[in-house]
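re: the backbone from monday

yeah here it is again, tokenized this time
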């Protein structure tokens, strides 16, 4: 029976597919760490209180990248080059999600509107990250090799999502509500397309590595397209709602430990 658990188990059990999985994850997390670090450094004076929270977000993403690389080292594997068609963060930027890297590489301070846009984009992408890690926790949270790492990353992603909700609601009350809702909608509709395309590319790569029969690959592709149709029909709305999180000030403390649980 084809299920999420059996699919990930197959990927985790094979060195080459596990290598690709962790390399893609590590690359995306490290890129997110750099982006958040640059945004923290360029926060405008009127929003300096956010700098430490954005910096904490970036430190968490850097930590996640180290965790995935440590999981590879634990199995005696080296990272592989991430195929461009599977590079979620790069494709998001190409579709205008997130602040342009050209802007982040400069020294000019960001505007308050830039920060609002960044938070709106993060709210959408962190929803995806939180859901994916929740799925992995459900099936592999007790796994002897990857369980501890998955649980740690999942907690962090939940905190990132909570932080985005709280800060966006603050900006809504400050009069940015219309811009926030427009940006959330545009970003969500773009993200679900990128997620579909990346999922198809990743599964195609995994299929070649694991020698999946054509019927299995076709079934997985159909499932990815069906998920996209659901999200395009209305599932995207879960990515744009705002509610005050149960945990307030989720990124208000010091950055998380830099040690890797998989090391």
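seq for it, each position gets an aa:
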């Amino acid at each position: 029976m084809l299920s999420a658990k059996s699919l990930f188990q197959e990927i985790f059990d094979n060195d080459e597919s596990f290598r690709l999985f962790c390399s893609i994850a590590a690359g995306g997390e490290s890129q997110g760490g750099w982006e958040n670090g640059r945004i923290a450094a360029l926060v405008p004076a009127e929003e300096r209180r956010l700098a430490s929270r954005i910096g904490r977000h970036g430190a968490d993403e850097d930590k996640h990248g180290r965790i995935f690389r440590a999981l590879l080292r634990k199995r005696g594997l080296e990272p592989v080059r991430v195929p461009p068609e599977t590079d979620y963060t790069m494709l998001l930027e190409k579709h205008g999600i997130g602040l342009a890297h050209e802007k982040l590489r400069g020294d000019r301070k960001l505007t308050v509107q830039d920060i609002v846009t960044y938070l709106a984009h993060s709210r959408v992408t962190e929803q995806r990250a939180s859901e994916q890690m929740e799925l992995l926790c459900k099936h592999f949270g007790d796994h002897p090799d990857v369980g501890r790492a998955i649980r740690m990353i999942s907690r962090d992603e939940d905190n990132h999502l909570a932080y985005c909700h709280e800060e966006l609601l603050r900006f809504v009350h400050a009069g940015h509500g219309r811009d926030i809702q427009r940006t959330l909608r545009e970003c969500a509709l773009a993200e679900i397309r990128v997620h579909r395309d990346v999922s198809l590319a990743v599964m195609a790569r995994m299929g070649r590595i694991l020698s999946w029969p054509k019927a299995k690959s076709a079934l997985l592709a159909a499932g990815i397209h069906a998920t996209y149709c659901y999200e395009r029909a209305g599932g995207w709305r879960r990515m744009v709602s705002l509610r005050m999180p149960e945990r307030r000030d989720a990124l208000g403390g010091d950055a998380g430990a830099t040690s890797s649980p998989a090391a």
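Confidence is low (pLDDT under 50) at residues 254-260. The radius of gyration is 18 Å.
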